[in-house]
Amino acid sequence: MENKTKKTKNTTILQLREGVKADFEIVNRCLIIKLLEELDHHNALTIREQSDKLITGRNVKDIIFDFTGTDFMDSSGIGVIMGRYKKIIFAGGQVAVTGVNQSIDRIFRLSGLYKIIHKYDSIDEAVNKFTP
Amino acid sequence: MNNTNEMLLEIQSLSRNEGFARMVIAGFVAQLDPTIEEIADIKTAVSEAVTNAIIHGYNSGDGKIQIYCRIIGRDVFIEVRDTGEGIENIEKAMEPLYTTRPELERSGMGFAFMEAFMDELSVDSKLGEGTTIKMQKRIH
Question: Which of A8, B5, B54, B119 minimizes the number of CB atoms within 10 Å of its CB?
């Protein structure tokens, strides 16, 4: 798997050629994870690894999980989000979710995750909230 | 209407089969013309049960998982069986947020979701013999 990096101003888009589970983008110090596959146990492993590389390597402060490109998540997804939350919370970072459909929204509500993460309609809205 | 129908799927204990198992059950239940929400509920419950079998039943090692589904009228009965390690303390395992695998970032919400999204849930487990999850849901 090879990274292709495209840089424009302060936005970095990282595209992975094979086994693409998500697109990663960094705006200022905010990591945007655009999920492209169902966030289950199988895909959680890859997404976790790829995110953590960027979180530590790129000095990421806030994280946005965008669900526009997927329609399924189970308790494994809760684990992924909680795990990333724990990594950035001590440096004052925040976690947001965007593009959440009705069934994923129910998973978040049931798990109580909305007590610690924010939900926004769009990525732009979340980015603006994090980096005013 | 009193139609009955049944199916049995056996998969190797591999994480990449989780999505396949969800899709098969969703496809089978589609004959009852469920709502999107009902299908999402069943997919989530099956996903949790199969994931549990892979991670806890077989400790991410080799094994077979059977997923049985029966339709009676408008009731869907699903069984997910493994012949793995079994659960030591079922009551504890079903507590929300309880997990034996925090290092794998397990949220401990698997059984809570199965209970929330299905009408009935029961767990049969014997140490060293395996676990069977039985779930039921009425499609309206």
Answer: A8
